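Subgroup meeting minutes
Present: P.N., E.W., G.H.
Scribe: E.W.

1. P.N. recapped why we're keeping a running log of single-chain structure predictions: easier to compare across weeks, and new members can see raw inputs and outputs side by side.
2. G.H. added today's entry (98 aa).
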Amino acid sequence: MRSALLLTLSLLGTSLCSAQAPAPVPSPSNARPTLAPAPEAAIEKRTERIQIEDTGSRIDELRIGGETKSITVQPKGSLPAYDVQPVSGERSWKILGF
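Output recorded in log:
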């Protein structure tokens, strides 16, 4: 009777140990490739064209993804239009625009 009890306990212990064994690691040939997240460039950004006009000039601004890309100022009258650099605020005129 005592040997039957020892046999039962040893079988129970063996089955518990095998249940705790880690899962086998898949080999590289069986591994599925994971998809990388899309790069930021692939995300479509909102484009806004803002036009403000008053008695002295008309200002056209282009924003892409909330960031100002270009500013064009067209003064009223015979003065030429000019561009303003968004970062530095520097002005540049188009002399011979084609």
